[in-house]
Amino acid sequence: MALNVVMLERGTRYPVPLPNENFLYHCSGVKFELKLGDGYPGNSNAHKSPSGTAFVSNQRIVFLPKTTTHENSTNTDAVNSFTIPHANLRDSKFVQPLFGANRFEAQTVPLTGGQGNIPPHAALILSFNEGGGFDFAGIARKIAERMSETGTIPPHEEELPGYDGPPPPPLSNSAPTSAPPSASAHPEDSAPGYPSDAPPGYEQWDSKS
C-alpha cells in the first residue's frame, strides 16, 4: 500500500493497469480516510481527502482525489493517490449507519519487505456519499473470498460470480418492446475498460448477515 505512487493514463483520471489487471468497478463522490497509529492521543494521524473516485480491480483498490491528474498523481505535497493490494486488507466490512454515508472499512497490512510508504496500524475508510458503496464492497469481498480459497489473485480475464438481476417482463403478444435503459450505478460515465455496473451475475450480500 502506498500514497502518491499511482500512474494515470495521460489526459485521463484512470489508473494505468498493472500486468494482468482488470478494473471492475469505480464510483465517484467518495471520501477517503487513512487513519494511522494505534488510536491513542498523540500517537495517531490521518491522511484525508474529502471527495474523489474509488476503483476496485482484480488486484487492488485505488483512490484518486477529484483534483488528481496524470501530472500530479505522484506528487507528495498532499494525498494525490492511494493504492493497496487486496492481499494487504484485513477485517474488511461494509457499514450502513442510520445516519450518514455507507462506508467500506478495512485494516491494512504492510507490504512484504517493508515496501510502500504507509506505517503499520492503519485503517482504510471509504465513505460513499453518492452511492455505489454496496456494489464496491461486494466486489472487494468476492475477490477476498476467491483469494482465500485459491491463495492467488483472480485472473484478469475471469469474471467474478455476481448478482443475478430480476428477469425481464414478458413481451406483449402484439409487438416486442424494448427494455428501458438501466441507470448507472454511479454518477460518472464509464471509460473503456472501466464498467459502470458490477460484473454479470454478481451476487449481492448483506453486511448485517
UniProtKB/TrEMBL annotation:
One GO molecular-function entry: chromatin DNA binding
Phylogenetic placement of the source organism: Eukaryota, Fungi, Fungi incertae sedis, Zoopagomycota, Kickxellomycotina
Bias-annotated ranges (Low complexity): 172-185
One term under GO cellular component: nucleus
InterPro entries named among the record's database cross-references: WBP2-like
Region (Disordered) location: 152-209
Protein's UniProt name: WW domain-containing protein
